[in-house]
Amino acid sequence: MDREASWQVISAQRLVLADLLDSLTPDQWETPSLCAGWRVRDVAAHVALAPQPPGLLAMIGEGLRARGSFDRLNHDLAVAHAESRPAPALTDELRTLAGSRRLPVVTNYRNALFDTLIHVQDVAVPLGHSITMPLDAACAAATRIWEMGWPFWARRRLRGHRLAATDADWSVGTGTLVTGPITALVLHLSGRPAAMASLRIASAGRG
């Protein structure tokens, strides 16, 4: 997908997430998401923060407090944002900033595409909501995750497997065949164990 198409999907997915969040009870906002150690509230805050990133100096300071851990930095920023405002304010931010193309200096629109797609699922799946990723965007996200290495290391982690979508023209890898919807494969590539319920693994040596 090109830049313009990617941004259109990112914008639409932010609005999808806002609509979903509007339907939640206070208890559901505190539900653990698919992202380990993150509540639904924290995921919402993370997505809302993407188009309003801290400045470079602030990021450096937060990075030092996180002892250089990118995962901890992301988590701490999201939790702080989530705790600093009521839930409806996070939903309002998602809607107001849905079309924004600002991003932290450390990332780009290709990463923002898969990040947004995945985080919508992080909220939807544990709450029992079915939201299918747009197929072209999901394929682009899956390819990006497979090729990029850090932080998912998908190619190394899934060595010896061939992943193939059943609802899109997408496949990677060699070895034991793993098939399923492209949405589930994106989650699998990003290390979400919940994806396995929607995937089929062939007998070893087949495919």
Describe this structure as you would to a colleague:
It is a single chain. The longest helix is centred in the N-terminal third of the chain and has 20 residues. 53% of the residues lie in helices and 7% in strands. The chain has ten helices and four strands; from the N terminus they run H-H-H-H-H-H-H-H-H-E-E-E-H-E. By secondary structure, it is α+β, with helices and mostly antiparallel strands. Strand 1 and strand 2 form a beta hairpin. The chain has a four-stranded mixed β-sheet with strand order 2-1-3-4.
Give me a quick take on this structure.
With 207 residues, the protein is α+β, with helices and mostly antiparallel strands.
Distance between the termini: 28 Å
Uncertain spans: none
Which class of the largest domain in CATH terms?
Mainly Alpha
Mean pLDDT: 92
Number of helical elements: 10
Give me the strand/helix succession: HHHHHHHHHEEEHE
Bin the strand percentage: 5-15%
Radius of gyration: 17 Å
* Helix content estimate: 40-55%
Structural class: alpha+beta
CATH topology (level 3) name of the largest domain: Four Helix Bundle (Hemerythrin (Met), subunit A)
Q: What's the shape?
A: globular
* Strand order in space, largest sheet: 2-1-3-4
Largest sheet: 4 strands, mixed
Give the number of DSSP strands: 4
How many discrete structural domains? 2
Please name the CATH architecture of the largest domain: Up-down Bundle
